């Protein structure tokens, strides 16, 4: 893998990681195109598609550094509000922490393909459509983005968001989409649902990337060069920061509607590609 491929992977990862359109799904689609002109080991590149999330993790950690610092202080017993937020994030993380290692190999074997991604994009769009409709109905007549702040979130609410995040292990579903929709379902405001999704993503993506480094580093080291790996992560970080900054402002004003139509159109294109290429 050269620097050109790393640049493409980094841009796709960064732009899509925190948008509700599935970064893993997009990366797998890009891999299908780029791998046709290279002989990179598939196991190595699949691992890299997870490790490259490190750049996006760092970007969000910097953007939400106040909340991250408050959670660290809270875990040290120095910030009660930060401690409560940290506990909520950890509770939401636990379902994926338990199920992720159990299903990791099967997911990579059976779901890293065009058809599974297309189906996940489509059905995820349907879920997002009804979640947005429900949210607008809840807000109607108030003229504001009604709902809970993070201070009002309960432990059971966080667990519900965490359980919904597990569905996003299916590539094409989108971790951001499931956690933002989960935030809607437990009554969070749009901006607060996005913020909790980002903070939960820091822990979840860090764990996923760390797990891949531990289990697949030898394979990656043989087939991939360190320079392009690091360059892709840096590219992902810069593009993720811009993407998150845009999403928070857009989501608070217009909701998820545009992403519903993007996912449906993309899923239809992928289904056409899949069925025409298999005949």
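^ structure tokens above, recovered residues below v
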């Amino acid at each position: 893998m050269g620097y050109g491929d790393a640049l493409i992977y980094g841009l796709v990862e960064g732009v899509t990681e925190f948008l509700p359109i599935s970064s893993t799904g997009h990366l797998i689609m890009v891999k299908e195109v780029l791998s046709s002109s290279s002989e990179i080991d598939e196991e190595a590149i699949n691992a890299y598609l997870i490790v490259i999330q490190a750049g996006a993790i760092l970007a969000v950690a910097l953007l939400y550094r106040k909340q991250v610092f408050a959670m660290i202080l809270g875990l040290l017993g120095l910030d009660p509000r930060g401690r409560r937020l940290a506990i909520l994030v950890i509770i939401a993380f636990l379902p994926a922490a338990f199920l992720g290692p159990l299903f990791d190999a099967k997911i990579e074997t059976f779901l890293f393909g065009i058809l599974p991604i297309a189906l996940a994009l489509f059905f995820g769009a349907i879920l997002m459509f009804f979640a947005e409709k429900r949210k607008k109905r809840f807000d109607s007549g108030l003229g504001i983005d009604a709902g809970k702040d993070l201070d009002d979130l309960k432990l059971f609410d966080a667990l519900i968001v965490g359980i919904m995040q597990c569905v996003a292990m299916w590539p094409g579903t989108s971790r951001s989409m499931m956690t933002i929709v989960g935030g809607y379902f437990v009554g969070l405001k749009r901006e607060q649902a996005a913020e909790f999704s980002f903070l939960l993503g820091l822990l979840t993506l860090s764990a996923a990337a760390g797990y891949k480094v531990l289990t697949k580093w030898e394979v990656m080291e043989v087939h991939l060069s360190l320079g392009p790996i690091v360059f892709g992560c840096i590219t992902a970080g810069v593009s993720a920061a811009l993407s998150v900054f845009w999403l928070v402002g857009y989501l608070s004003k217009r909701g998820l509607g545009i992403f519903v139509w993007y996912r449906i159109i993309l899923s239809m294109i992928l289904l056409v590609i899949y069925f025409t290429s298999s005949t």
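The chain has a mean pLDDT of 88.
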